[in-house]
Automatic annotation (TrEMBL):
Ranges of residues in domain Phospholipase/carboxylesterase/thioesterase: 106-179
Organism in which the protein naturally occurs: Corynebacterium lizhenjunii
UniProt entry keywords in alphabetical sequence: Signal
Pfam families: Abhydrolase_2
Molecular function terms from GO: hydrolase activity
Name of the molecule in the record: Phospholipase/carboxylesterase/thioesterase domain-containing protein
Length: 277
């Protein structure tokens, strides 16, 4: 992580007749244009909450400018067919909002990250805004299964993009092995693929090698890597719940965290490997 001083701004951007909010963290002393990381929060969170949830560990990651957008009524309109939230009911165009945010900030390169519903938003952008991003990170989210995979574009529109996925095997809300995702039986988000199936599907779309190379990088963490010009990586964290490893203590209902690593450090390492000059 980069420990440089930062400037934090709370900004608004009009889109679809709404004042959309985002938090912008800019490294001091580094002239622009910057690389930009857009970090999408999870369900019932906000831009401020995801910063606290990750203990600020993504702020100025590797000298990047970081934008934390707010979803409408605490959700983003993601890629799943089953999404019983206001962002879907109101027809919120979060793909267009993301494009507008990028136009406003005029970055050098764009990187995406998202947790839970925000991870689903990243998946939507990979399909519905092909190659908008130079690379992407998905925390605790997997592709919808069957008809629940419902981006606007067909899969044939997908363009190769390096992707890192990070998922705990004991996630109570987004099951690692696949199944039904959601907060509870009344607030289901429909059937989803498992993390390995999702990574393999993205590797196929990226034209990466069909068989991953695996290595134990920590006692509880295995990295699977599908090699290619646009690689896909999956970090499987044994026993971890619906969390992003950030060194903080969070609600026990989300499951157990890991102390083996800080997610932001591994994300920075991944971005450095796949960044083009």
């Amino acid at each position: 992580m980069n420990a440089r001083e930062t400037t934090v701004e709370h900004r608004r951007l009009e889109h679809q007749g709404r004042q959309r909010k985002y938090v912008l963290v800019t490294p001091q002393g580094a002239p622009g244009p910057h690389d930009l990381l857009i970090f999408f929060h999870g369900s019932l969170q906000s831009g401020n909450v995801i910063r606290r949830f990750t203990a600020g560990t993504f702020d100025a990651l590797d000298g990047m400018q970081v934008a934390y957008p707010y979803g409408v009524e605490q959700h983003f309109n993601d890629a799943r067919a089953t999404l019983p939230v206001a962002a879907r009911e109101l027809g919120i165009d979060d793909v267009g909002f993301t494009r507008a945010l990028i136009r406003e900030l005029a970055p050098r390169r764009v990187f995406l990250a998202g947790f839970s519903n925000g991870g689903q938003m990243v998946l939507r952008l990979l399909f519905d805004a092909p190659r908008l991003a130079d690379a992407a990170v998905v925390f605790a989210s997997t592709l919808g299964a069957g008809s629940n995979h419902a981006p606007t574009n067909p899969d044939s529109a997908f363009l190769p993009t390096p992707v890192l996925l990070m998922h705990g095997t004991a996630d109570p809300l987004a099951p690692y092995e696949g199944g039904t995702a959601g907060l509870d039986a009344q607030r289901t988000r429909g059937p989803v693929l498992g993390a390995m199936e999702t990574a393999a599907r993205l590797a196929e779309l990226n034209g990466a090698h069909p068989e991953p190379v695996s290595e134990q990088i920590f006692g509880d963490t295995t990295r699977f890597r599908w090699e290619g010009p646009a690689p896909v990586e999956l970090l499987r964290v044994a026993g971890m719940g619906h969390l992003i490893p950030s060194g903080n203590v969070l609600d026990a209902r989300l499951g157990r965290n890991t102390n083996s690593f800080i997610a932001a450090d591994l994300v920075a390492e991944f971005f450095r490997r796949v960044r083009t000059p």
